[in-house]
Structures are given as structure tokens and as C-alpha cells.
Amino acid sequence: MQNYTIGLMSGTSLDGADGVLVDFSDPQLKVVATATELFSNSFRAELLALNTPAHNELHRAALAGNQLAAVYAQVVHTLVTQAAAQGIAPAQIQAVGAHGQTVRHQPQRTSQDAAGAGYTLQLNNPALLAELTGLDVVADFRSRDVAAGGQGAPLVPAFHQRVFGRADATVTVLNLGGIANLSVLPHQGGSPVLGFDCGPGNALMDAWCQQHTGQPFDAGGAWAASGQPIAALLASLLHEPYFSQPIPKSTGRDLFSPAWLAEKLAPFAAARAEDIQNTLTEFTASACATGVKSYGNESKELIVCGGGAFNHHLLQRLQARLPFLRVSTSDLHGLPPLQVEATAFAWLARQMLARQAGNLPGVT
Fold first, then answer.
1. 255/352 Cα distance (integer angstroms)
2. Which of 81, 217, 269, 340 lies 20 to 30 Å from 201, alpha-carbon distance?
3. pLDDT tens string 284-331
4. Domain formed by 157-333, architecture
5. Does 157-333 match 4-150+339-353 at the fold level?
6. If one looks up domain 4-150+339-353 in CATH, what number appears?
7. Which of 305, 285, 287 is CA-nearest to residue 295?
8. C-alpha R_g of the chain
9. Which residues contact 304 (CB under 8 A, 6 or more apart)?
10. Cα separation, 324 vs 111, whole angstroms
11. Nearby residues of 272 by Cβ (< 8 Å), 6 or more positions away
12. pTM (2 decimals)?
């Protein structure tokens, strides 16, 4: 019997929604359809604004959740249409895994009573998505873990182990979305799987590029490569206390925000824009490489996925900082970089339906 599940993902890069239809009928999962819907500039700006307190934000957040559900529904419609062309009926699709758009992530407990529990908030309207698609929807993946005292993030290491784990060698997987997260996958019989957020992935680089070039991202890292690193700025960026915190840990735009970056950049007002872009790229590479050295130094390979996998300059800087392993992209291991996270949420939805765990307590 064939088992199909749809996974949807819109990450902290705020560029759009990716969707996949995955066939789980065999041990080797297979992506049978893919679709992407880009966010409009106005919707992207609204999602970014909702990451910080604002006027009438409850009403605006509800409307944004509705709009996101409409975008998700369009992705699902495209996937269902592709599936029908392959003889796959909607009734064969078990569920849609829809993560939503994270706008607050505060998992830290503030007191020991229930009111002091941490929280994580993703904009979404799963009920509307179910109504628009006629399919079951699995959502709100992080909250139960946070309620139990966990970080609620990252959720992908268990899936990374399922897809990229090896019996004969330790492997690390780096997801370079808006925020970068690392999975350390020990060889068979090794220590438990580890995973944590390294810090910024593309978020700060993209914001600076948009501000100074009008482009949503630095294609291939070419603009960063034209500049030079500013050592004092890099040191200031890396001085952020988050980097010295032990794992498990997670972060997001709550910390690494435009306001945080503006404060760090204030003493460097005379610096060239391309030199700052170079330094922001070096900042991401340094934070990620430090995570690998601290927790995955037995690894033989770093598998990179997410939008940052297409930043050739960033990958070069990672390789330079990690000469003891091979830096590769996930397409060389059977799953294209832009499909990994959406496929993960298809798998997480399937885990929920089977009443199987999706997270790993050692990670979250």
C-alpha cells in the first residue's frame, strides 16, 4: 500500500512556502511532487514586522495566518494536481504537515508554575487550510515539547538521522535557513543524536543585501566575496552570549533581529556595505563551524541544506574553517537542499499519525 504525505515549510528567510508530496511506502522515501509559492513583498514585510511588538498585532497576526493558509493551500493544490497526473488520488494522501511561520520563540521557563512555561508561536490557520484543501492537517509541532520543558527546536535532527545517518561514520547536517541549525548524527552504536541552533543563517545577510542592493539575497555570495572581513565587527558579533550557552538551545529573530544588527553596526558607520556583507557571511560560517568543532569533530562530512546551500562563498568559508571534513550539499545524498525541510515536516506529520515521536529529547 502506498503512503503519501504532504509537507509544507515556510522558514525564517520569509521568501515563500515550499511543498513536497512524499511517498513513504518503501524504506527509501521518495519525493514525487514539489511546488513553491513565493510571498509577495507586502506579505513578507508584514511577517517580518510581526516578529516584534506592533500596533493591533493580534488582529494583524490572525489575518496573516489566514493569508499564509491561502498560500499553503495553493501549494497543496499544485501538488495534488501533479499527483493526479501520476495516478495518485487525493484520498491516498494521509495528511498535510504545516509548520506555520514562526514569529515568537521564547522556550525558556520564567517560573516553576504553569504560567511560567515557555512558549513558541507560529502564525497559521490549520482549520482554514483543512477547509481549503479537504485534507487532514497536522500543525503546531513545537508547543508540546516546549510545554514539557524542551526547546521545541530544532525538530529536524530525527529526520536527518532517518535520511542522512550512516552506520560507518559520524555525519553532521547543517540547515542554512534564516537561522542555522546543526544535527550531529553519530555512527551506529555511537553517542546520541545532537542538534541545536548555531545562530544566524541567511537572515542577517539577506536583510543587509536587501537594504543595500534591492535584491532579496546575495546570489552565490558574489557580493560578499567582493568585500573584505572587518575583524573588529566580526569579534563584536561573535561576542553575543548565545554562543557560549550550552546545548540544548534554540534561537530566532527574537534575538538576531535588525535592531540587534543595527546596534552592532553603529561603530562601523563608515564601513563599505560589501565589507559588512562579507563579515556577516564570515559570522555565519564561524558560528556554524564552531558548532561542528564543539560537538561534531568526529564527523567526516558536513551535509548542507536550505537556501544557504546555494551560497558558494559561504560554503567555501565553511570548508576553509573545517578542513578536517568534506563540505557537500544534500542533493549529493539524495534530497535537494530546498526539499529537505518540507520533507521533514511530511515525515513529522506521518510520525504524529502513527503516534510515534518526532523530536529527540536529547536535542530539544
1. 30
2. 269
3. 999 999 999 999 999 999 999 999 999 999 999 999 999 999 999 999
4. 2-Layer Sandwich (3.30)
5. yes
6. 3.30.420.40
7. 287
8. 20
9. 173, 174, 175, 176, 315, 318, 327, 328, 329, 330, 337
10. 43
11. 227
12. 0.92
